[in-house]
User: Fold this.
Amino acid sequence: MRALTGFTWLLALQAAGEALSRLLHLPFPGPVIGMLLLLALLRWPAVREPVAATAQFLLAHLSLLFVPVGVGVMTYLGVLGQYGLRIALVIVLSTWIGMAVTVLVLRAGARRRDG
Amino acid sequence: MADFVELWIYLSSTPLFGLTATMAVYLLAQWAYARLGHTPLANPVLWSVVLLAGALVVSGIPYQTYFSGAQFIHFLLGPAVVALAWPLWTRRAELRARWLRLSLAGLAGGAAACAASVGLAWLLGLPADVVLSLAPKSVTAPVAMGVSEAVGGIPALSAVFAVLTGLVGALSGKYLFDAMGVPRDAAGWAARGFALGTVSHGIGAARAIQVDADAGAYAGLALGLQVILASILMPLAFAAARSAF
Assistant:
């Protein structure tokens, strides 16, 4: 029952986010606005307690949710066959550059604080 | 035999097929991942995608038929993005204390990943729609599709690139962080998780959750932050670039 209530909150807030995004022509996708709305509502135990159980379950199995989109790679085998090596190079290098920059900015702050 | 063929044709064309196949293959991949000591190369998303896409290509079942069932799992990405408010809420005291540094790191890392992918793709002479589809690949798949549309890419291709980027981060992050000398203490795990979530979104976060609780929480935070930053800044940056050239 509690998990169902939590799931209903997530759906309702996503729907509210979609509505706000369209009505106000906001640049965020609906679920992002839903996330911000939920962040504001979590201070109330009536929302927090049911949402906690559902959110932890969904996020623990987050990687499953990417499988259907990932299988979509099969529809782009043509593009990937034609440009595969270059695309792989771009993805690998930009991923490493992004992660390295993130760590360097974070660690620069940590080192300065430690003296 | 004819009955069996008829039954197979019926089953493989109902939504039941895509849904059941996704769940069963993922559980199998997850079991193998645990048996192999959670080594990055045994990543369950990677092997689920390889097995499912391979089986569909070999058996000639179109992706649309598969997706008619798998869409029920895909749909949960929306509520999962809303649910990201939960890890943010549980770490709110820490976030209030470190928000400026974390925002800077998220902004710099996300911008570097986006600029590097667009810049490299352009230098390597990839077609314009592929270049633009690569731009939002560090943002979690459902949001990457929205951003892709806003910057002039192909949403479905961006979603595939986002999954591939997630896999590259989940597979190689450990080795990159070790090579950079990031320690394995509380602050080090936070930095590793945050970097994985910033660049490799949900798939990186799923890997981080597996390795360390702090790393997992910071990865969830980074992925939420990236969603907000990218969905505001990326369309603005590309609109500005377009009017400048």
User: Anything to note?
Assistant: Helices of chain A lie at 2-23, 30-41, 45-60, 67-71, 77-114. Chain A touches chain B through 67 residues (CB under 8 Å).
